[in-house]
């Protein structure tokens, strides 16, 4: 009966062996109330495939086709206000399905994820019909891609700042999630042939490095604190499950790396406060700064979630703090973010006094590859 309903609902064209390339957003019916949501899923599917995750591509394409089977989820996506790409709605759907597969609640979905092959449309349809409310609730929350591989580029940038000023770092992070990148000095790195970090660490990060290797300079972390609107606690199994769900299901390497970082964070718990990024940063940069300490603010793939007013307040906080900086009280801003046109990711370092800004690298969104300029 379910198979007959499937044929009736989506039509015989979708029962043929179509590839994602034949289902591009421009082929969607513009009068379909779910057209924008489906187009977003297709775009993310293409991006996933380009970044080496064909299974995620297939899941997202099937999700776009089967959306009417999840009326609550469909309503969330259809009425979403704002930029879907900036809110990462497609990644929320992907995370929701991965979390459901990991839970074992829908047998066909869990089997699909275990094998990473099979009748993807059937498994996604089953999931939408059986767990619509669960999936809709999951996508209400923000993405939590606390990708520790990004720490490689951040570490390389901070080595430049540490070499420039010669001071220990007071590390401040915006959008910390579970705070795993606050532990970046506890990880071991291979950066284009340069070894850095803690060589004995169980978290080992070696991105594909293009360009010259950075000079090694030990990082001394005086303190490390972060902020997030909805911070995750690595001691809470449910929080850890949410983190794991946002790892793409066919990226075992990222999953293993994240699990190792979680174990290390339980031994060295990061300090992450709950709050608004602009309010928190303004308060942190207004505090007296000890002489001989470099105050370093970092963030990775968070700017897209901040509205224009929040970005403006953050820029003002940097301008005011930068005006107070001197050689004994330097300020550093290192970010790993999309450029304004969302064409490529940039690693950019600004140092005060003097407000010097340098484009250091073009990493990929998840830290797998770093094209280093230095």
Residues in helix, %: 40-55%
CATH topology of the largest domain: Rossmann fold
Compute the number of helices. 14
Distance between the termini: 61 Å
Count of distinct structural domains: 2
Rounded to the nearest angstrom, the radius of gyration is: 22 Å
Quickly name the level 1 CATH class of the largest domain: Alpha Beta
Question: Which of globular, elongated, flat, extended, rod-shaped describes the shape?
Answer: globular
Average pLDDT score? 90
Which structural category fits the helices and strands? alpha/beta
Account of the protein in words:
This protein has two domains: 2-140, no CATH class; 148-372, Rossmann fold (3-Layer(aba) Sandwich), CATH 3.40.50. The longest helix is centred in the C-terminal third of the chain and has 17 residues, at 308-324. The model is unreliable at 1-22 (pLDDT under 50). 43% of the residues lie in helices and 18% in strands. The chain has helices spanning 2-10, 35-50, 54-66, 71-78, 84-87, 89-103, 107-115, 120-130, 132-140, 151-165, 237-245, 252-267, 277-286, 308-324; strands at residues 169-174, 188-191, 194-197, 204-205, 208-210, 221-228, 271-274, 294-300, 331-338, 345-352, 356-363, 369-372. Helix 3 crosses helix 8. The protein is built from 14 helices and twelve strands. The protein is α/β, with parallel strands linked by helices and 374 residues long. It has a nine-stranded mixed β-sheet, with helices on both faces. A three-stranded mixed β-sheet has the order 3-2-4, covered by helices on one side.
């Amino acid at each position: 009966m379910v198979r007959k309903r499937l044929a009736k609902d989506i039509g015989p064209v979708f029962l043929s062996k179509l590839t994602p390339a034949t289902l591009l957003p421009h082929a969607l019916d513009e009068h379909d109330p779910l057209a924008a949501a489906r187009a977003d899923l297709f775009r993310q599917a293409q991006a996933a495939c380009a970044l080496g995750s064909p299974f995620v591509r297939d899941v997202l394409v099937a999700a776009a086709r089967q959306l009417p089977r999840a009326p609550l989820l469909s309503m969330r996506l259809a009425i979403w206000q704002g930029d879907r790409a900036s809110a990462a709605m497609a990644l929320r759907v992907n995370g929701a399905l991965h979390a459901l597969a990991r839970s074992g609640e829908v047998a066909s979905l869990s089997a699909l994820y275990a094998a990473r092959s099979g009748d993807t449309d059937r498994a996604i349809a089953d999931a939408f019909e059986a767990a619509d409310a669960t999936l809709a609730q999951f996508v209400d929350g923000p993405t939590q891609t606390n990708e520790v591989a990004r720490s490689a580029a951040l570490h390389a940038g901070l080595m430049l700042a540490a070499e420039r000023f010669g001071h220990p770092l007071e590390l401040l992070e915006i959008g910390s999630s579970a705070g795993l990148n606050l532990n970046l000095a506890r990880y071991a790195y291979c950066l284009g042939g340069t070894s850095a970090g803690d060589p004995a660490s169980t978290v080992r990060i070696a991105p594909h490095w293009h360009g010259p290797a950075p000079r090694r300079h030990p990082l001394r972390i005086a303190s490390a604190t972060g902020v997030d609107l909805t911070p995750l606690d690595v001691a809470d199994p449910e929080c850890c499950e949410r983190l794991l769900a946002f790892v793409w299901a066919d990226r075992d390497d990222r999953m293993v790396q994240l699990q190792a970082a979680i174990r290390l964070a339980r031994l060295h718990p990061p300090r992450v406060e709950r709050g608004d990024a602009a309010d928190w940063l303004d308060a942190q940069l207004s505090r007296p700064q000890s002489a001989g300490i470099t105050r370093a603010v970092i963030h990775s793939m968070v700017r897209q979630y901040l509205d224009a007013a929040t970005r403006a307040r953050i820029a003002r906080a940097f301008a005011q703090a930068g005006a107070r900086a001197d050689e004994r009280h330097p300020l550093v801003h290192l970010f790993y973010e999309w450029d304004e046109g969302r064409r490529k990711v940039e690693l950019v370092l600004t140092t005060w006094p003097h407000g010097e800004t340098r484009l250091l690298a073009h990493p990929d969104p998840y830290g797998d590859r770093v094209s280093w300029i230095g």
